Amino acid sequence: MCHHTISSLPLSTKIYTTGHNLYVVDQHSVSVVQFTTHPVTLSSVIRKQAAPVTTPLEAIYWSADENKVCNEGSESMESTEALLRCTNERQATKYWEEMWLAKSDSQRHRLCCSTFMRELFTNLTDSKLPWMPHLLEKIVKSGHISSSVSPNLIRVILEHKEWKLLRTCVKLLCDISESDVVLCLDSLLGDDLMGNLQEDIIVDILALPYTEDLLKNEVRKLPFLKSVQLLKFLRTKLNISASLSDCLPDYDQVASWIGLLLDAHSTSIITTPHVWPLLTELQSTILLQTELFSELQKIDVLLNQINQPCNFNKNSNIFEYSVHRMVL
């Protein structure tokens, strides 16, 4: 093989050999050339010369047990193509369920990270194509989907105000970005007559993990009045979280969000007098709980002393003896 041909390969290209076959995997396909029937050169594989067999990457899985590359078959390819072309939600949902049930766990993981899945989400979030919330919910409920597969998914769901689907995404999507977190809060807050479902979604959002520096920058973009509304919401949750150990968000999460909001909007809070009563109420709540925890800590110390077992240090030099008095 020529050195210049090897150096011209993309960095993402991988080469495998099994038996009499050479496999070259690029970003979109797997090319196969048999050793016994074709002269093997990298250029013949990459440029699809010498009639190599090329298969889309989504239709390939590597069988570790049999040490070979296996094609998932034309039926799988037909179902994926049919799903991408389908504009009827009921039929598309049927295609998805059939395709999902036919795959093993490892195949499902690969499918959720594939270019096919990215293309599918691109179609499902395209404003020019039919909106299919039921199909999206089915896909998200599979539990393997990352938000990186469809960066626009949360925004599109908010535009359609699909609150049930949004809650499913908040609970099941992996790696929801800090910008999407604040985007959800911005859409949910501002309505004094929020329904129970919207409040439940906010609770789920507050319980999500986040990077503090990234979230602080995003929280600064949240309108001030909505930040104040969120502070009121958190003040009510502060008492509930303190009394219930299994409550979401938990006490630490509520306290962290309060500190985050106060830090991000400190200037606006100081210069806005009508917010000061809320700060007074918040401080009173915190002082009350601080006193309560202080008393509980004293009780905890007493209980530890009572429950502490008595440990007597036995001196190994001490031995039993008896005194006998003799009368002469």
Automatic annotation (TrEMBL):
GO biological process, one term: maturation of SSU-rRNA
Protein name per Swiss-Prot or TrEMBL: Nucleolar protein 11 C-terminal domain-containing protein
GO CC entries: nucleolus
Entry superkingdom: Eukaryota
Sequence ranges assigned to domain Nucleolar protein 11 C-terminal in this UniProt record: 134-327
Signal peptide: none
InterPro entries xref list: NOL11, Nol11_C
GO MF term set: RNA binding
Name of one Pfam family that matches: Nol11_C
